[in-house]
Amino acid sequence: MKKVLLVLTGATFWELKDGSKHPTGFWAEEFVVPDRIFREAGLEVTIATPGAVTPVADEFSLVPETNDNDNEKVEEFRAYLADSKENLAAAVALEEVDPGEYDVIFVPGGHGPMQDLSTNTDIKRIFEATLDDPTKVVASLCHGPASFSTATRDGQWLFKGRRLTAFLDEEESQVGFADKAPWLLESRLREYGAIFESGPAWGSFVVVDGNLVTGQNPASAEAAAKAVLDLAARV
To answer: Cα–Cα distance between 140 and 9 in angstroms, integer?
Structure first.
């Protein structure tokens, strides 16, 4: 049985440029859809967070306005989160993770990763052990690639020259945070040396580069998870 380490942010706020703290967490769709797909496919999923804190969903990801004004979709996500309460509460400490035990590393987004995973040394350790291993799959969604920030070895960024995508600066601008954020994810990934690719704002867009799978935004959750399943079946 393939094993997935699903790394969620433990942050409940995102500190903005002016020092204010914006309430956040993980983005519901980016956890719910992949978690369900992985479990239904028979993969063993372990949730991990920094310090083993119980992760929380960003409430903004659980309103109709951020879900195509689809109330049924919102209720579906809320029901899945309720059913996942014990799994979320049982999150293991990222600090104690042995990456050798997992076949897939998957990092969903939400603004939370911009706060904690972007500076986390344990996710760096995990990427160091997995990204160059062709038998492993590394995947992330939306703001999740903020977790790539610290991934260096001997002064070189591990994702330099890799094709990937993430939440666009354009999308950040459209949700009203581009001028408030301490830094922008697309800009940072480009600056660090990624070959950044993108589709239209808010549309599903996934990039597969070897063993690396990235999705642009919440709408990409299903396609990214299915791409991970396909890769995991082949490696």
So the answer is: 12
What are 37's two structure tokens? 């797909």
Which residue from 109, 6, 8, 9 is spatially nearest to 61, judged by alpha carbons? Answer: 109
CA-CA-CA-CA torsion sign (87, 104, 52, 18): negative
pLDDT in tens, 112-125: 999 999 999 999 99
Q: Say how far apart CA 199 and CA 49 lie, in whole Å.
A: 30
Strands ordered across the beta sheet of 212-215? 92-93, 44-49, 3-7, 104-107, 137-141, 212-215, 206-209
Written as six digits, the tokens of 163 are 């094709």
Strand, helix or coil for residue 19: coil
Report the C-alpha gap between 115 and 146 in whole angstroms. 9
H helices of the chain, in order, are 28-40, 71-83, 85-89, 112-115, 121-130, 169-174, 185-192, 221-234
pLDDT at 235 over 90: no
Share of the chain above pLDDT 70, in %: 100
Rounded CA Rg of the chain = 16
23: alpha, beta or left? (left if phi > 0; alpha if psi -120 to 50): beta
| Phi, psi of 5, deg, nearest 5 | -100, 110
Backbone angles phi, psi at 134, to 5 degrees: -65, -10
Q: Which two tokens stand for residue 161?
A: 């020259």
CB 85 within 8 A of CB 75: no
